[in-house]
Amino acid sequence: MSTLPKPYSLPLLVDKSEPKKPILTEDNLFHPFSKSPFAAIRARGEAIQTLAPCPMCASHHSAVHAHTQAAPKAVKYECPDCGWPTHCTEEHWREDTEHQKYCSRLREVNEDEHDLRSGRRLREFELPGPQDSEAAISFSNWDLFWYTRSFPSMDTERSRRHASRLLTYPITIGSVLHQHSYLTLNNQRLTPEGSRSLAALRTTLHVPPGAPETEEASADKPQMRIFILGARAESSLPPHVWEQLCLPFPSAHFHLFFIGPQVSLPRPPNSGATPNAPGTQQNSQASVTATETFTEKSELAEEKPVEDGEEPAYLPNVYEPPTPAPIARLKRTRESIQRYGIPSYTVPYTPQLTITGMQANYSEVHPQFQETFDPYTDCFFLFTPGFGFPSAKSVSEETGEPLLQIASPTEWGPVIPSLLATKCPIFVTGFSPADVERDVKSLSLAPEVAGEFDWVITPGPNAFGSEKWEVADFDPRVMVKTNWGVWGIRGKRRDVQEKKSWL
User: Fold this and answer.
1) Between 377 and 287, whose confidence is greater?
2) Looking at 214-331, which runs of residues are DSSP E strands?
3) CA 442, CA 450: separation in Å to the nearest integer?
4) What's the rounded Cα separation, in Å, for the pair 427 and 259?
5) pTM of whole model > 0.70?
6) Which residues of 353-373 are buried (b: 16+ CB within 10 A; e: fewer)?
7) CB–CB of 459/440 below 8 Å?
8) pLDDT tens digits for 151-160?
9) Where is the composition biased (Polar residues) (predicted)?
10) What digits encode the pLDDT tens for the residues 243-266?
11) Per-position b or e across 229-243, b if 16+ CB within 10 A of its CB
């Protein structure tokens, strides 16, 4: 489980048939956190002031003698240029020459967060419907994908950031699996072993060359199972966002499995109104707003004014983020605890898409699937799993130091060897170049993993990562981009070779 949290799901917008006057105009998006018109942003500023240390105090204290135990002061002063709490006093803000390196990014995030709540019509979240069977989709980059999928025009960089932030999870999966993927042998991102693995999956996802990609072609095809392990944010995205993964594959059936101890489960049956069924006007016109930063906010409701004496519903993005709030219960949602023996649900959202969520460690449910895995129909995705981060629960018996999470018996230690044994491809993302490098290096240190895998996709940038900067509450200088990089491995295949007689 990654030290840095992943962003959460996003509240539904109101129906565009009910126009409302925007709360903020395009030229009035910048507000210091403490003076924001939105309670959630004010609450985030307060959380930062309790978590983040002043960078100038920290540098001063590191230069004094070791016996000095005074801790850096918390940030209280809001930078007038970016609006974030960044230093303990104005004096330290003026002394910090490094602040200008990240001030413009913080201002960009500030304006993005206010824009999402501004009340304007967010056209970038109006997702297109089924693909024309005669039209080819390009997975070269975001621009060509949006154009060939007939998305609304992304006229501004802010629209690009919002849309990429929303779609990075489903489209990253689609871009890896699709036959028109940007990951090829020519650019050396796809290995020969990976080409064989993806060719097997694509026989299930696509029709034979020359045949039309239509829904009728899926009649005799097996279901494509995608296991998303360690899921948090992914499990709380609305199903109609995940449907964007299915539409580039008209002749395939998908079954998504969200598995992890922090998977979102549906609300209890009588806890609220049931949303409209898929395909209704509200669900086709309304889409999802981008997350309220990667602060792991767990509220799924619309922005509401905070009454006197009521605390804002905000959960800061500390090192171990909480489980997301329950997701909306759809009309066909059913409990699956009797089938899997753990808290779980299944929803057949459309004839092409079924979603199952399981709130448990993967090692608890692996025995139920281990005899059914098929490299032609199954694959695994792990979004920012944090293999190379030190474990908070397990320590080495020899050195007494924390184990890496990929070797920890309470985290990924028993999981990765069991995934390699299936011979199904395992695709992994990271939130920065350093995160990808850290995770890849950890593979050579983990028992039963080192030397037991072949490369499918070599480590490198993900063309469909989020373009929006995510800022950590415990230090605003820490910024990453969701799913920045992607790579993949598969259990080592040892072909049987005929040995000639020594005679």
Assistant:
1) 377
2) 224-229, 254-260
3) 9
4) 15
5) yes
6) bbbbbbbbbbbebbeebeeeb
7) yes
8) 999 989 999 9
9) 271-293
10) 999 999 999 999 999 999 999 898
11) bbbbbbbbbbbbbbb
